[in-house]
Amino acid sequence: MPVTAVSNPGSNSNAPILDLFRHSRRPQWGLAVMVWEREDKRGFRFEDGNERTFKDGYYELLEPVPATGEAAAVLARLAVQVAQHQVEATGVPAGPSLTELVAVFREQYADGFNDPQWAARHRGEGSRRRVKRHRNAAVEHAATALSREALDAALAAKDAAGVLQRFVEVMAATDLVTSKQLDSLRKAPATLALAQAMRDLVHEPDPDGTRFDAVLKLLVGSPGGRPCWQLLSGMRALVDPRQDVCIRPSVFFAAMQTVNRGRGKKASPTGPAYERLVGVARQLRDRLVGLGEAPRDMFDVYDFIWDTCRPAAGGVLTELRARWAAEASAPVAVVAADDAADAVEDTATVTQDTTATEDAEGDVADVDEAAAALGRTIEQLAAMPNVGPTDGPTATAA
Fold it and tell me: Is the pTM of this model over 0.85?
């Protein structure tokens, strides 16, 4: 079966989701990346050069594999192949995958979220003076100034202006919003209705987004301008950094596309949109953990997004892709003659495009087609002493 375009049908995104997987029952196929998903099926391109389709219900057979060591080199070869097919099929270069973003991240911070440079720059650990990007100090500030007790006391005293001022001061001490973006709150009329809505936004559950929309509605007519994503989401993130995320549109939506193309699509600020997007951001956090990273909270995820998706990171990704392409073009040796029979047998079996059900049961294609594939493979092995990484199915040296 030929490799299809990696862009998701029905989506405007061209970003592939390239994480590594291994089939739990067919390790001889090698590692794989998912190249498409539609309805109840997913297509995976394997290291042996074949693409296979799996139905919903059998996805768990594809187990995630960290892209480290030798696996990273395999991912590089597969990424080059998928990117080439993307351009051939659509004429549009592939966007970054999550695995590529992690590679960009590791290029800047060798020890990931535990890197001392990361801890100093983004968390403010070891710093004598707080700067706006330091997350630990910002979270501590919010825990005190925006605590449930502090806000309830101000509301009980009918001090609406005091409540709003607390939010302004906490946000102004961070780099989550610009001064102009903060004007929406700073210049809003200090009503008890707005003060109560702000308090509820950060301290009460909001599964359907009604509390988010209540604040949005009260701020829409502010002399300081319409409230933005950064302001509305940033306040929630500061109070509950383990579950909520600040949305920076210039990079946030691109990162969400590497996790969930449908639910991560761009949207204007609304309560339901925030609940949808924060769910995708949590998926990103969980995927990072699955890839061996250890974000402390959603602010680590926020800063990961910025550091890997900002314009300057594009140059790092370009350099990495060039390096991977060079590595992928290096020839690989075929197995020794003593192992040739096993290699032929494996190849004859896996060249068939099976469904997940057939695969799970260990069924193979009919005898005539298997025999034909076996014959073609014998001819290929006899004719080619060396096979490049994109030359099709072969068995490589262990």
Answer: no
